[in-house]
Specification:
The chain is α+β, with helices and mostly antiparallel strands. The chain has a domain of 103 residues: 3-Layer(aba) Sandwich (Aminopeptidase), CATH 3.40.630.30. 26% of the residues lie in helices and 37% in strands. Helix 3 links the parallel strand 4 and strand 5. It is globular and about 35 Å long.
Length: 151
């Protein structure tokens, strides 16, 4: 497995991954234009690649609050879910965020279909908006305090 920075050549593959995850209920199809726009200027966005195939992608962004960052657009190919790749991608992003001075909290929003995964990674639910993404797809806000290591 290799984790590397997203490149423009990954765009079509990432869009196919989005569509596959939307079919499983992890995203709503109406979110696709937002994801397409995001891919034009993804910032800190990474792809998880194995033997030339992109199996997942995910990124993070600094929030307006100097002490907060957010995880964004994390997705894994359906055939490779529940194999530890989502955890690998999440932990990688958290380590990258942890390198940024002053950031002590990480937030994300997800649906009820992925909340259990993020709870296992140490995130806790702080808000729920029923049908927040679309009918039947709730928006769940979660946070995690970063562990601070002293040198």
């Amino acid at each position: 497995m290799d984790l590397r920075a997203y490149q423009d050549r990954d765009r079509d593959t990432c869009l196919r991954l989005f569509d596959a995850n939307a079919a499983l209920g992890h995203f709503h199809p109406s979110e696709r234009p937002n994801y397409e726009d995001f891919l034009h200027h993804p910032g800190a966005y990474y792809v998880l690649e194995h033997e030339g195939a992109v199996l997942g992608a995910g990124g993070w962004a600094r929030e307006e609050s100097e002490s907060m960052a957010s995880l964004c657009w994390g997705l894994i190919a359906p055939d490779f879910q529940r194999r530890g790749l989502g955890r690998l991608l999440t932990m990688y992003r958290l380590r990258e965020i942890g390198k940024v001075p002053g950031v002590t909290m990480v937030r994300l929003d997800t649906s009820q279909n992925s909340v259990g995964f993020y709870e296992k990674q140490g995130f806790r639910v702080v808000a729920v908006k029923k049908d927040g993404y679309a009918p039947g797809l709730d928006r769940i806000e979660m946070v995690k305090r970063l562990e601070v290591c002293s040198a």
